[in-house]
Write a structure and sequence with these properties.
single chain; 1 helix; 41% helix
């Protein structure tokens, strides 16, 4: 407080408060700009779900055995 005289104290505090508000405002605006440009939104809708689900593919068991025979046949 020795470097700041008592009559200049309110002016100094007002300046510090103003700079703090400016930093907060610009920081919030910067963060808002970042989140808007990197975030995508999707609209939602309620739809009916069928009771059956159809899919292409194969079903395999966890344990498999390969069988080989000496002679072929029916």
């Amino acid at each position: 407080m020795n470097t700041i005289k008592k009559q200049n104290l309110p002016l100094f505090l007002l300046l510090v408060f103003g700079v703090s508000l400016l930093i907060i405002f610009l920081g919030a605006k910067f963060v808002s700009h970042l989140t808007k440009s990197s975030m995508k939104t999707e609209s939602i809708a309620v739809k009916q779900v069928d009771q059956q689900i159809m899919s292409d593919g194969t079903v395999r068991s966890q344990n498999e055995a390969s069988l080989h025979f000496q002679t072929g046949g029916r």
